[in-house]
Amino acid sequence: MDGLAQSPATMALLMANIIVSLAGFASRQIYEENIFWIGPMKQDKQWYRALSSGFIHVNPPHLFLNMYVLVMFGIVLERWVGLQGFLLIYFAALFGGSLWSYKDNRDNLNYRAAGASGATSGIVCAFCLYAPFAELRFFGAPMPAIVFAAGYIGISYALARRGGGMIGHDAHLGGALAGLAMATYLHPEAIGLLMDQLGRL
Length: 201
Prior knowledge:
The protein has helices at residues 2-5, 8-26, 28-34, 38-44, 49-52, 60-105, 117-130, 145-162, 170-186, 189-199, and strands spanning 36-37, 112-113, 135-138, 141-144. By secondary structure, the chain is mostly helical. The protein has a single domain, classed as Rhomboid-like fold (Up-down Bundle). A hairpin with a 2-residue loop joins β3 (135-138) and β4 (141-144).
């Protein structure tokens, strides 16, 4: 946990997600007042849900998975891009995911979702822009970062198309694109480096 202690933005986001999610688990009112819900957003202009829904989760396994991804990638990414750059990528991805979800479901007033899926997707894609072939160990299984990212986003897309449930799979694609865009804006030279690494395959 030494790396986490030296990553204040990752630590703060981890704690915020845990605290808000635990409050949501304990109170149905808190949960329903903060999830991504098209009806109240369109009818009552509750746009704050685009932010609050990224910190509240459906259940403990959902929270654990998103926080596992946040810590696994966030510690390293924050070291590479700095605290401010990391927060810019995280929140660009969070709002990008919310925007994608809203666009996809704006005519369904009953659509509801929750989770940091958009933000974590952006963090994963930003990491892969800088180090696509870094070896990761996902629950002990070694794989290149870019393979993990492709699988993570691909599964999310398939689940989003299938529909059902409250996990914000729709947000993964918007979050991934927004995180990648912000990382490229912060370090435009990273695209050239990525192409160079891919060209060596």
